[in-house]
Amino acid sequence: MKNYKNLLEQSNLKTTPQRLAILKELDKHGHASIEEIYENIKEMFPSISLATIYKNISALKDENVISEICLHQKPKFEIQKEPHAHFICKKCGKVEDVPFSEMMSKELEKKYPDSKKELYIYGICSECKKK
Length: 131
Ligand SMILES: [Zn+2]
Ligand SMILES: [Zn+2]
Known about the structure:
The protein has 6 helices and 5 strands, in the order ααααββββαβα. By secondary structure, it is an alpha+beta fold. It folds into 2 domains: 4-79, Arc Repressor Mutant, subunit A (Orthogonal Bundle); 84-130, Dna Ligase, domain 1. The strands form 2 sheets. It has a 3-stranded mixed β-sheet with strand order 4-3-5, with no helix packed on it. α3 packs across α4. The longest helix has 13 residues, at 17-29. The protein is globular, with a radius of gyration of 16 Å. The protein starts with a helix and ends with a helix. The chain binds zinc ion (2 copies). Residues 89, 91-92, 94, 125, 127-128 line the site of one zinc ion (ZN).
């Protein structure tokens, strides 16, 4: 379990229970959309609205605490980490992290310095293949 409070203290954002809950959700699920976060934390914060989560997500994104994954579906968010690729299941929409090999990271960095590396792999996940 990560220290979410630390993540927020390193940014310019105030630590609020809502922000901690959002980070906890992202850590738990790896990748989640605003709607998914809302569904999961509204019980804990009955007065929270989608708009509030949206605002907090934007703030966390601006401070580079989390990053947005642009999918061919609803955007999902994750806590900022090492560059990695994403596997996206075309059937169920599941998102999995795929590590870059060190060689690939170096190669990409050399060729495209100062650029944001986003790599997506589309296919059918093992769960859906079983069905
Ligand atoms: Zn699937
Ligand atoms: Zn990821």
